[in-house]
Amino acid sequence: xxxxxxxxxxxxxxxxxxxxxxxxxxxxxxxxxxxxxxxxxxxxxxxxxxxxxxxxxxxxxxxxxxxxxxxxxxxxxxxxxxxxxxxxxxxxxxxxxxxxxxxxxxxxxxxxxxxxxxxxxxxxxxxxxxxxxxxxxxxxxxxx
Length: 144
Known about the structure:
Strand 7 and strand 8 form a beta hairpin. The chain has two domains: about 5-60, no CATH class; about 70-140, no CATH class. The strands form four sheets. Strands 1-2-3-4 form a four-stranded antiparallel β-sheet, with no helix packed on it. Strands 5-6 form a two-stranded antiparallel ribbon. The protein is built from three helices and ten strands; from the N terminus they run ββββββββαββαα. Helix 1 (about 85-95) runs antiparallel to helix 3. By secondary structure, it is an alpha+beta fold.
């Protein structure tokens, strides 16, 4: 999921992907490059630490600290996705009418998947219409 992150270019404010220098590298600390296809901005990250959090009320990436391209206010929170696959995953889960979980005899109700860790406000049935609308806005942003 983290092999590509879409962010706002620090120079021209268009969509710029951050990708690992070695395609398919799953290492969290693998060197990464931000490359804007609009203005040609290139930045490289080779640190051994990451930043988690937000800046100026926006969710930012953990490497360069740039705002994520896919983020939208929703129900008093910010709904965000790293990339198209992440957006599809959230949209599929929120849009599902039935979210079946399996009981595993050795471990019980497992809570290890990304989807099980989504915030309650995203998975709440009462917020479903608002969250789906915000996800549609994020999808439209991809076409820009």
